Amino acid sequence: MITFSRPVPQKSDEVLRITLFGAIANFFLVILKFFAGFCGNSSVMVADAVHSMSDFVTDLAVIIGARYWEQPADSTHPYGHAKLETIVTLFIGVILALAGLRLMGGAISTLHSLITDDNFHQPIPGKIALIAAGISIIVKEILYQITARTGRKIRSSAVVANAWHHRSDALSSIPAFGAIGFCCLWGERYAFLDPVATILVGGMILYTAWLIIYPTFGTLMDAGASQEIIHKISTVVQSVPGANNPHKIRTRSMGEGYDVDLHVWVDGNTTVFESHCLAHSIEQKLKEVKELQILDVIIHIEPIHDTDCSNDQL
Prior knowledge:
By secondary structure, the protein is of the alpha+beta class. The chain folds into 2 domains: 2-220, Cation efflux protein transmembrane domain (Alpha-lytic protease prodomain-like); 227-303, 2-Layer Sandwich (Alpha-Beta Plaits). The chain is built from 8 helices and 4 strands, in the order E-H-H-H-H-H-H-H-E-E-H-E. The chain has helices at 12-39, 43-69, 83-116, 127-154, 157-186, 193-220, 227-238, 272-288, and strands at 2-3, 244-254, 257-266, 294-303. It has a 4-stranded mixed β-sheet with strand order 1-4-3-2.
């Protein structure tokens, strides 16, 4: 059995840089939205401020987590710390879902009061809330584009998830902008649009949260790679001279990559040193194929003509 140590990725600096940039922007947006929401009498803007606050919290989670998930393997974590990135991604999704539910609950309560209580008064949002919503749309869409591009480049699910958090905030500001605009133009009879827009925003947030949360289940449960990737792994191994019949190929998700272990046939007269060199060549060849994202490789060498201890030729 021949094993190879896991390489240490070098992306934490990029994660910290882009996330810190987003955190600073979110901090100022939170202040702006809360101020505009309270001064402009807009519940949807206050809801949008809560959403931005959840963005700020998850930015902090990514900044703290990035310091740990790229740490090399140690005695207590022999497979490294890559799954911490998945846990942070799950945390972001859960926070986002809770924020969406909270916003929808408050808006439904307000809408119910508008319908059932004749004495309930919903104030008309002010123009300051409209301006804040417009600024939020522009800033958050810019943040999404920059963060998503960085996340895809460095293959970080947590950064991509955080980018979608920015995008969901930008999208949530669109109905806020529309509802506040209608209220400002047409008066108090359209005040119900503010809580209605808040419910719509909450639904969008919940959908985004699900898109973030769902993929983390597979990684946390050690889901393997697709059959397409397994086939590519087999093809790559067979391209190495001396390697025959790669079988019992197993993979499991580790952060944004895969751990792989497999069995391979070699000529029965191959020496231990030659087998070691062959296994090293297989490892290098697999890691050269970037789309496979192979992090660690374990190779079991079997002699072709060994029928006593290798009857599991799958």
